[in-house]
Amino acid sequence: MPATIDRLIITSPHEEPKQHWSYDRERRSFDLLNGRRPAGYVVATPGSRAFDDPGVFHELPLVNLIRPRVRAWREAGYPGATGITRRLLEYWHDAEEREDRRFFFCQLEAIETLIWLVEAPEADRQGVDVPRDGGPFARICSKMATGSGKTVVMAMLIAWQALNKVTYPTDRRFSRNVLVVAPGLTVRNRLQVLIPSNPSNFYDEFRVVPVGLLDQLRQAKVLVMNWHVLGWETDEQLAKRKSVDKRGAKSDEAYVREVLGGLASAQNLLVINDEAHHAWRVPVGTRLRGVAKDDVEEATKWVGGLDRIDRARGILCAYDFSATPFTPSGHQSSEEALFQWIVSDFGLNDAIESGLVKTPRVVVRDDGRLDAQLRSRLYHIYMDRDVHADLNRPSEPEAPLPDLVKTAYVLLSKDWADTAEDWESGSQPAPPVMITVANRTHTAARVAFAFDHHRIDAGDLRLPREILHIDSRVLAKAEAMQGGDEAPLTTDEGDGEELAAAPAHKESADDRAIRLRETVDTIGQPGKLGEKIEKVISVGMLSEGWDARTVTHIMGLRAFTSQLLCEQVVGRGLRRTSYEVNRETGLFEPEYVNIFGVPFTFLPHESHDGPPPPPPAKKTRIEPVSEKRAFEIRWPNVVRIDRTYEPRLTLDLARVPVLQISALDTPTNAELAPILEGKPMDQLTTIELDEIGRRQRWQRIVLSGKHPGAHPGFRLRETGAVDGRHDDLVHG
Q: Who's near 672: CB < 8 A, 6+ residues apart?
């Protein structure tokens, strides 16, 4: 009998999954099966629009081959690992030591897999051949769902590599020179926590390395940059420029010196590609239909720039991290589009069942007009015939939205209003956030106009008031900036309109871009520009790295041609507000995000409606009071205690026998002569102990000899003159 899903979270976030929900296509229901879900990815069935279509499952055979070997390696105590690596792995797994900062299982498995590929005995890795991407350097991909903590894994990766290189400087398997490439300024700024010298670095915050190794870790050189920095101009592009400077394109050497800065002289670089699905190779001579020109240019510059760095300095390995590591093909996602060098996988279903992310709840029924398959019109709103035609024509902002879209907003806003009221009663300062992802700028403008001018007929229902309408071109410009020079925009306390509004003076285009990025980047954060934002309207996807934790509702008004696109869009709203584990069950409490118009075909859903998403856990800020500084009590900061053990030698002279010898029996000089034709010559050289005695104390002269009961080595102690008078020879 099919199981009733009353709770999707069935696995501790700190343990390997032992059960999973599996969909039975024939019975159209979920069963709770023992064992871990095989690594793989679900692709929507071509042509199917049914909400309960499970799609087509594509296995990741390489990951399923590696998983049991890594598990066996872990259980065997990591044979073949270096001393530093074993120390790190044991420290990362120490639950008692890390009680308040335990790593998730998916994080530990990801880093263990990367280490296993380098340090495990060759016999254990027999038959594991990671495919290349067609380029000159190796790439290794870790597939981790959004919100599962891949930035922490990057910190663990850097620590493992750098500490081993510092400890074993001649080992070519490791590097302490790290280049981290990000898809935009938002992600670049967030990844600054990977720099050991950063005050907010993850190595301290998450206790990634033992305290005694922090000094060695600081020898690592980490450079975080936008992929845009990797761009260059070709000879053809330079020829088109109207400039008196007729120099050609930069050589690889000049390019590397300009791009890498402080790492310009480093060799054997370690590369980390975040959101690596942007970094793919365009096959030579191939034109990809249906893929945006900007996407092709980004991939070409990103990977091409790394190729130039590899030619000039050498790349040890490029480690890719992504929740959706697909190469766009211009068509629906397929098995061929998946990165072939994926070695570990912890997908969205696994993250949901572990409670690491919010549970998406998708509309599967409504009480409106249903077709023969009982498919909800709210399941994929954009594909409704009336809606599709309406949203694809150029319209003015004041043009009314289709009736189905307005009805969907009324329903979603009702749930949002209930959530907002619940959060306010809990004294939560930031409101819940509703996101709209539109198909084009005209649609986004119409949605914004409808909310601004109360065109959504919801009676007395409170609708989202503080609205952020994102200009995609301006945001893209902000994400392409180098970063580091612009000052963060802050405002005094005030209401949401003041926070989101532009300043009184006329802004430049760059200032506007920075302000928009700052607002988007701080949604839900107290005291920041985006604190009071309640609704976000965008075209396409929001930028990677956007980790607002207050998203509770999502409206999709665009085509979703693949599960990949569904996951990328919804992933922006899946980050949890609380990571407190229920002490009785050992599991996370569920949090939800309610979704209209995004057609997930493979997600299990709970059998009950469930409560609205809970507000973020209220936190109490603990800080010193400056007025009480005079009463401060200081304790010594004991970094570590070193115990030094030294051998102690003692000599019992009473038990040492005295050996007396006569100078007449012991040679004190020797004469040497060169030999010619086997006969000694008259050129004599004399070695005399008298001469040595005049230059050094006799106690320092060690003679070699044999005597019954004595060691072969002994020292002469002067008791009188030589030549007829005896000396005492004391055993040393």
A: 684, 685, 686, 687
